[in-house]
Structure to design on (598 residues):
């Protein structure tokens, strides 16, 4: 009797324990699901937000940065900021906005030195190797240089002037007798510091620093630039063009540079029945053979 | 427990017997510790005195001492990032520290959320709020597991997106954004949903630090448990009341007077509110079952207790 009762109570206790555990596990799992979905949503970095120099690729960065803000504290220019809840950047992670306060490309890169985790990669020794983003002259309709003026501000302020950004002179077709000096960014040297975007004189910057993934296209893997290959090889890699040989009627030439079929001037009309359209003449033989 | 919950007289007797300071000493030392730690972090942004930089996740003191939260670092590890030396050193120092002073001493002496949840608990007593949604004290370990699982699955330190502890601490130092809403959520949870819901049941940070408390030498001891008059004030005031019983009432089961349960936060409130001076801080090793301490104790001044 006593044993039976005992067994009953332990059974009841066990059932309650199991139910409690299931409730807890269920609740926590639900919470985890929500949090996971939220994490997924907040994993995408908005285009205006740039990571500090040396930041690992975004996916790795989110697993490495512990949101301590030491990089923020050691930046002498107040460039960096920790994202607050409600901002589009993952909460607590450091970022900057080029148009507000750009990175001044400190030679000693104090932000990287300060980072305890290596989320900002210590292998970045030379700030010129940083790739925080890539400047893009996004608005070619309003850029003053595109309009034919000599604003040049983005070019002047660039810490890597004449390497990251150059001015390319070209004919101003609109006026007909001026030049335009087109700011051209070179991804090989642009660090994405954001100085150009910050300094653009327009109310909304025409040049913008974007995440490299947005700013850059990618050539097809099999694409080769003929002229580059030629330069590398020190000469043409294909056989020189040869004049095409057609079975042409007398007094008719074919120009392979693109002019097509040419009737030689001054020649008497050929003796064969000859159409005014030389192509018809050319095709005639072929049709006959079908 | 219910007595104190309903009429708010926890510690009244201790106040009467021991005076204000000795019945509030550990509480105020704890608040002082919490405030000064936060104050040190705030000194930089507020007064431009940069003794301490960073936040609880990782900090640098006087440009030499690195301190890093081992919990967040482990999440990073789970997410697949091997941290650099500075963080590892910092985490090692913090781990050793809490191994010594009791893991959840973090909760009682450092964590900024503690004041918030303590406030909620105080208000519950003040206004007689007795809601009790059943939460398991083990939930926090599920939460702890979850935070590691999410980190491993997503490759990102997901918990830090909403962790109320860093939300509050980072918020105060670097700016809140909407982070205050999370903190308010924790406050309301504790106030309206269930007693000590967050710190006592759910918080994975506390759960993590409690793991370090399993070996810590510094513990609270019910050294003079024979003097206990069953007023229950210690149960009422303790944030983890289940830890007290084995130590206080365990003599019959052959248990020593040390509170060995790792959920004890070493807050010392039980020492404060006990009018019979049962509790004291001590070392884990002094845990012999016999209550020989009785002899060394002075007779108590003040009221004598009528036992029923
Ligand atoms: S390189 Fe200098 S200016 Fe740029 S983010 Fe780092 S510390 Fe700030
Ligand atoms: S110092 Fe490193 S770990 Fe700390 S917030 Fe900056 S990037 Fe993250
Ligand atoms: S972002 Fe602009 S200023 Fe900075 S390196 Fe690139 S082109 Fe120069
Ligand atoms: S349980 Fe969590 S929130 Fe509460 S004091 Fe401890 S770490 Fe802070």
């Amino acid at each position: 009797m006593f044993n039976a009762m005992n067994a009953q109570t332990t059974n009841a206790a066990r059932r309650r324990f199991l139910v409690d555990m299931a409730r807890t596990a269920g609740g926590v799992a639900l919470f985890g699901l929500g949090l996971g979905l939220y994490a997924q949503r907040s994993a995408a970095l908005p285009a205006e937000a740039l990571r500090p120099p040396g930041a690992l690729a975004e996916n790795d960065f989110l697993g490495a940065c512990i949101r301590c803000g030491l990089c923020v504290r050691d930046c002498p220019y107040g460039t960096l900021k920790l994202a607050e809840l409600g901002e589009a950047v993952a909460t607590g992670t450091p970022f900057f906005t080029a148009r507000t306060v750009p990175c001044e490309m400190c030679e000693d890169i104090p932000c990287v030195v300060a980072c305890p985790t290596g989320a900002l990669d210590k292998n970045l020794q030379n700030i010129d190797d940083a790739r925080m983003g890539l400047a893009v002259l996004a608005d070619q309709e309003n850029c003053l240089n595109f309009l034919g003026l000599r604003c040049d501000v983005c070019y002047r302020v660039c810490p890597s002037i004449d390497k990251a950004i150059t001015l390319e002179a070209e004919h101003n077709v609109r006026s007909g007798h001026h030049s335009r000096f087109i700011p051209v960014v070179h991804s090989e040297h642009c660090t994405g510091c954001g100085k150009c975007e910050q300094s653009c004189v327009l109310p909304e910057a025409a040049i913008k620093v974007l995440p490299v993934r947005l700013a850059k296209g990618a050539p097809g893997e099999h694409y080769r630039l003929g002229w580059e290959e030629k330069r590398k090889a020190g000469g043409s890699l294909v056989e020189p063009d040869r004049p095409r040989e057609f079975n042409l009627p007398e007094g008719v030439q074919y120009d392979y540079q693109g002019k097509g079929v040419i009737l030689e001037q001054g020649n008497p009309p050929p003796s064969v029945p000859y159409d005014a359209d030389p192509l018809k003449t050319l095709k005639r033989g072929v049709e006959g053979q079908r | 427990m219910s007595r104190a919950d309903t009429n708010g007289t926890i510690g009244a007797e201790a106040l009467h017997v021991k005076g204000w300071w000795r019945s509030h000493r550990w509480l105020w030392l704890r608040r002082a510790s919490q405030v000064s730690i936060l104050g040190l972090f705030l000194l930089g942004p507020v007064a431009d005195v940069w003794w301490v930089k960073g936040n609880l996740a990782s900090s640098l003191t006087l440009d030499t001492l690195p301190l890093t939260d081992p919990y967040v670092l482990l999440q990073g590890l789970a997410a697949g990032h091997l941290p650099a030396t500075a963080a590892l050193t910092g985490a090692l120092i913090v781990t050793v520290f809490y191994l010594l002073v009791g893991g959840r001493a973090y909760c009682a002496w450092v964590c900024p959320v503690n004041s918030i949840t303590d406030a909620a608990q105080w208000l519950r007593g003040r206004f007689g709020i007795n809601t009790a949604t059943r939460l398991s004290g083990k939930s926090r370990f599920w939460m702890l597991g979850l935070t590691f699982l999410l980190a491993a699955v997503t490759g990102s330190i997901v918990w830090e997106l909403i962790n109320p502890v860093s939300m509050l601490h980072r918020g105060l130092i670097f700016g809140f954004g909407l982070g205050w809403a999370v903190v308010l959520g924790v406050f309301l949870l504790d106030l309206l949903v269930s007693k000590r819901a967050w710190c006592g049941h759910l918080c994975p940070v506390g759960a993590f630090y409690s793991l370090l408390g399993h070996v810590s030498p510094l513990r609270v001891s019910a050294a003079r448990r024979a003097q206990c008059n069953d007023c229950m004030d210690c149960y009422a005031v303790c944030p983890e009341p289940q830890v007290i019983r084995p130590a206080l009432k365990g003599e019959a089961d052959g248990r020593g007077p040390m509170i060995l349960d790792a959920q004890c936060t070493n807050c010392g409130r039980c020492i404060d509110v006990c009018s019979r001076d049962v509790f004291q801080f001590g070392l884990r090793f002094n845990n012999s079952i016999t209550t020989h301490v009785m002899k060394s104790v002075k007779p108590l001044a003040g009221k004598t207790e009528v036992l029923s």
Observations:
- The CA atoms of residues 164 and 186 of chain A lie 5 Å apart.
- The first strand of chain A starts at residue 49 and ends at 50.
